[in-house]
Amino acid sequence: MEWIENGSVTTPSCFQASGIACGLKRSGAADMAMIYSPRPCVVAGAFTSNLFAAAPVEYDREIVSSGNPVHLVVVNSGNANACTGEQGLRDAERMAELAGSMLMVHKSQVLVSSTGRIGVPMPMDIIEAGVEMCVKALSPEGGLDASKAIMTTDTVPKSVATALEVGGATIRLGGMTKGAGMIAPKLKLQPPQATMLCYVTTDACIERDALNACLAKAIGMSFNRITVDGDTSTNDTVLVLANGAAGNECIRLGTVECDRFGEALVEVLGDLARRMVLDGEGVTKFVEVNVRGAASDLDAKTCAESIANSALCKTAWFGADPNWGRILCAAGYCGISFDPYRVNLDYDGVPVVRGGMEAGTPEADLVEVLKKRCWKMDLDLGAGTGSYTVWTCDLTYDYVKINADYHT
Amino acid sequence: MEWIENGSVTTPSCFQASGIACGLKRSGAADMAMIYSPRPCVVAGAFTSNLFAAAPVEYDREIVSSGNPVHLVVVNSGNANACTGEQGLRDAERMAELAGSMLMVHKSQVLVSSTGRIGVPMPMDIIEAGVEMCVKALSPEGGLDASKAIMTTDTVPKSVATALEVGGATIRLGGMTKGAGMIAPKLKLQPPQATMLCYVTTDACIERDALNACLAKAIGMSFNRITVDGDTSTNDTVLVLANGAAGNECIRLGTVECDRFGEALVEVLGDLARRMVLDGEGVTKFVEVNVRGAASDLDAKTCAESIANSALCKTAWFGADPNWGRILCAAGYCGISFDPYRVNLDYDGVPVVRGGMEAGTPEADLVEVLKKRCWKMDLDLGAGTGSYTVWTCDLTYDYVKINADYHT
After folding, report:
1. Are residues A257 and A310 in the same domain?
2. Is the overall model pTM greater than 0.80, yes or no?
3. Chain B: closest CA distance from residue A118 (Å)
């Protein structure tokens, strides 16, 4: 597998994309994106598990579960179309219909996504003009523009592509993602929303059940392991579109080729997910929380998420404060069972805690680790073989600033 | 029931207290407190449910569950004596023994508490000198001094007293508490730690099982309903000492007198708990989250806690941003069931959401509510009769500052 420099959703064959500014954002920044494949695409999707799933999420779920091939994805930023009732559903459908009609594609073959403020009706006149601009701007080089147009509080666009040999042909995967706050996706395949959005294109030929299986695994290894603020959005969406233009022998479930494709998808989603955390709202530190030695994988997950979401741990990391007491405290209240006297903790391989007490490493050595932009902790609970990893970040002044000022 | 101005733990008869500075805090602020009753006291206690319960918590649990009467409580701030292993347990016991020996009280009749940094061995030479100073400073007017000496990041001491007629006599309750961060107590009676500490004295005569029952109920109506940052500490402790000096007919379980005493205890703990939130780290807003119409009380609790701990909700409150989408979002991902289209939300009685969508109240009217120092929301899920209330606060620059700089 080979990463492709400046790769994007238009790196795979026969995909076009665009990103334009139509006026949904007061700032005048790009706010609508489109991905188009003239060839029909097999699609797999995962969406938020939030009860207040946004209108476009409800709309997409139906399309994806129908099994119909799709040609088009339209995404707007600047408005989430969530908590907008029946009108919101009509607006999502209308957005799909408008875009489809300009490309001779039926609305049942068009997916839509929205991200932005919750509870504001969609300004359909602006949407309509935007869709027209987006269609006109479609280009085989439009992937990077699209990745910019889906940003909200992101500071950098996040785009990637890779190539590998599968089934006698070179296939490519391209991906883009956005999301900086309200990030703690709990995605469910077909039936799931954060406001993280992620789109993957591939020119591989792959059967639908194989694509679903690969996506389910890849989500579990990527977006469902990240948290910025512990808030699971109403709009989280991951879509994978496969148009088969690479000419490989079609990938079937349970084959070596399926495994290879799945591994590539894990890498692509993992890379995008890590970059999302690093570009999280106000983030200055990326922290990998590895918990092992738990009684079960589920216990390890509960513990890792408790640490990753603890306001006290996250502010300590911002301050490069090795305050391990807060980490043990978050493990101790998360509701799982273990013996406190058997707990060990390392920061980047440097011993911090042994047997539930300080390991004796000079504090200055720990501070050195915590000053790094990316570091990891290994927490061993000494209670079994369960393990889990979460990617998280610090909690900073800028997070507060961004979210206290969001509206004004 | 009557509140007593400038009341404290020494307002009830025959209690003495003191608060002094012995050098545990680098700042030179008061850091050790003592409450003493020459008469033996019936005691009830509730402690943290964190697995890493601090040494003094483990020590106190044994004393409280033994049922023996106690005479003395010694509290230090500046060091939590948590994650300190066997040595920590010996230090807690030694602290009790030192204090007891100076007052001719056996260590089994002495309770100890600690609050401060986790994982640092207790400096026993300082503790020893402090205990001696504290005993010498004991006075029937020492309650307010004691309430200052237990503070950590608190900005104001929190002390209260009340009087009521029970069983033919006037009885008094006095209380003090501390805690500003690591506040999300999940106290369990006898077997529970946040770093909130609370001490209540009363000159009532009350039987032990009656006192336990009253405390269990009062905790459920007060400290277990508050959250500042969602972090449940290793040291949370609530102790109630009853010395019987009022001369009332002894209060027994299941009597009207027990109900009256219980109501007074609910009021005292409720007042202290609300003041704790208002003095939480960096707090500028006190928010009462009322959830009703849930399928069960437990569902209502899950939902209220999800909102009260949401970083996005808390930062919006700081910014006086009526962003109700974040509240619905936090309700939507908390894992309970309800129909999004039946949800209503009010801020201080002003309609915000009706049927899952905006109620149409002008935004300026909502902003007016959110600018208040204290306000409440009523969220009706339309799914049943379950209800629950949580007292919480905003998340501010100062919270980040306090906790990123704590160590340095």
Report:
1. no
2. yes
3. 5
